[in-house]
Structure formats: C-alpha cells, structure tokens
Design brief:
It contains nine helices and eleven strands. With about 270 residues, the protein is an alpha/beta fold. The chain has one domain: Vaccinia Virus protein VP39 (Rossmann fold, 3-Layer(aba) Sandwich). It starts with a helix and ends in a 10-residue tail after the last strand. The protein binds S-adenosyl-L-homocysteine.
C-alpha cells in the first residue's frame, strides 16, 4: 500500500492518500495540505513510509499519521454549540460547548503530527508535543519554525514542545491560565474531588501516543477529559506484536478500550542516559 500513496510533492502525497482512502475527511486533507512534510522528514519526505530522524526515532509514515488524525478528529475540532456550524462548515457537538481543545502528542519526534493537530484545533486550542529526548524536543521546534505558520503557532503558545516522560502524561495550563506547568501530574490514588475538577480543566480532549507502550498507562487514561480519546500503540504481552488501541472516556467518565490493528512503532521507553 505504501508506495501507492507516495508523491513528488506534498500536495501529490496528500492527494494520493486521499485517492487511496487513507484520508477520508476533507478537514483532515486540508490540514495535511497546510503542513509540508519536507520540513519534518530529512529524506524522502513525500514517500508514504517512515523515515529516520536520529536518536533511534522515526517520523511515522503519512498513512499512519492520517489514520491517527482521522481517529482523533471528533476530539480535535473546535467545539461549537449544538446545532451550530463552525466556520469550516462542520458541526462538532461532542463535549462542552466553547471550551478550547487541549491535545497531547506524546513522542512528538519530528513535530510533524504536532503541527497537523494544531491546524485542526483552531485558534483557541493548545497542542503540547512531549519528548523524553531534549534534542528531539528541539528538533520539533526547529522544524516547526521553518514555516511562517509554524513560527506563529510557536510564538502564540498554541503549540508547545516539552521534555518529560510521556508514560506519566503531562499537565499544562491553557493560554490565559496563571499557574505554571508541572510535569508528571500526581498519580491517581487518593485524588480529591477538587483535584478531579482541576484535572478535568487541565486534562486532554485527545492524547496521541507516537511510540509503543507496554501497557495502557492508567495515568494517561486519568488525564483524558470526559469525553476524551487516546490513540496508542501497545505491545502484546507475549511477543513483538503491537496493536493500535483507542481508549474512549465518555461524558460520565466511563472508559472503553478497543484493539484496532497490528502496527510497528518504536518503543515508549526510559530516556537514554
Ligand atoms: N510522532 C513522531 C514519532 C516519533 S518516534 C513523528 O512522527 O515524528 C517516537 C518518539 O517517541 C521518539 O521521538 C522517542 O524519542 C519518543 N519517546 C519514546 N519513549 C518516550 C517516553 N517515555 N516519553 C516521551 N517520548 C518518548
């Protein structure tokens, strides 16, 4: 499948992903058209395949990015009141009307997906790219600064790259909130109602995990808003097999986990010494 979607330009790559039904939503297509993959992939940027970016990391293949974004889409689009149309002509009625979107991209690597996600959350949203290797956090920032649109996202604080262990999630104030960000939010046991409310305000509508976890980290599930969705590759117990899982938290806080299909991602690990 991979070679069928490759192109000579960014537009051609996206058009081929569309033609092969790897991108099916017009809003996803326009977000992919806005982000030039050549700013993020050092080699063969318009091939539908993963590419090395150093530090044993890879930028994922475009069709994987496309599937991740399509899966998370209902939790990315700016919320509008029920029955109203957003400026893009799409009504998104999930969740609390008017509350800005908050998205966490764990293992942000090249920063490519972080940028695409930011194109979808709109002007009020915030996307945090989290890396455990500082050189890759800086790479994401540098790559994003290659385009005027990317620079504007960084300067406005709508995209922030942070260093931390993604297995613990991340806590980050929204634009306009006074308190500073604190990495690795407190663990679940003993949380008070007050803490719950704070987490709900500071939690994430969508969490994307770009490296394979050994378990479905409960701390990440806890940091999902109600409603919220996580997209995460997880290693099966016994072998090298990995599967994409989605974890949905509904508006009542009930959690549903779903195993989708087999994939191959680099592992979510301890930071190298
Ligand atoms: N979404 C990125 C994928 C990069 S590869 C892209 O398409 O460019 C996976 C990334 O996960 C690597 O950059 C790696 O450094 C990072 N990673 C691995 N374990 C991590 C952890 N515990 N916390 C945060 N990032 C981690």
């Amino acid at each position: 499948m991979a070679w069928r979607s490759s192109g000579a330009t960014n537009a051609e790559l996206v058009e081929n992903l569309w033609r092969n039904k790897l991108i099916t939503q017009p809003l996803v297509k326009s977000a992919f058209l806005k982000v030039d993959r050549a700013h993020y992939a050092p080699e063969h940027p318009y091939e539908d395949s993963p590419q090395p970016i150093g530090h044993q990391a890879t930028i994922s293949a475009p069709h994987m990015h496309a599937h991740a974004v399509e899966t998370l889409l209902p939790f990315l689009l700016p919320k509008v009141e029920s029955g109203h149309q957003s400026t893009d002509g799409v009504a998104s009625v999930i969740g609390q009307a008017g509350r800005p979107r908050r998205v966490l991209d764990i293992g942000s690597g090249s920063g490519y997906l972080t940028h695409v996600l930011a194109e979808l959350v709109g002007k009020t949203g915030v996307v945090v790219g989290l890396e455990h290797i500082s050189a890759l956090k800086e790479l994401g920032e540098r790559n994003m600064a290659k385009s005027p649109e990317g620079r504007a996202l960084l300067e406005s604080g709508r995209v922030r790259f942070r260093v931390g262990d993604g297995r613990k999630g991340w806590s980050e104030p929204s634009p306009g909130d006074a308190q500073p960000g604190v990495g690795g939010a407190a663990a679940a046991p003993g949380v008070t109602k007050e803490q719950d409310k704070k987490d709900e305000a500071g939690g994430w509508d969508a969490i994307h995990v770009g490296a394979a976890a050994t378990v479905l980290h409960e701390e990440l599930v806890r940091q999902l808003r109600s409603p919220g969705r996580m997209f995460i590759p997880v290693n099966a117990d016994t072998s090298w097999e990995q599967y994409i899982w989605t974890v949905d938290k509904d508006e009542h806080g009930d959690v549903k986990k779903k195993k989708l299909y087999a994939v191959r991602y680099v592992p979510l690990t301890d930071a190298p010494k």
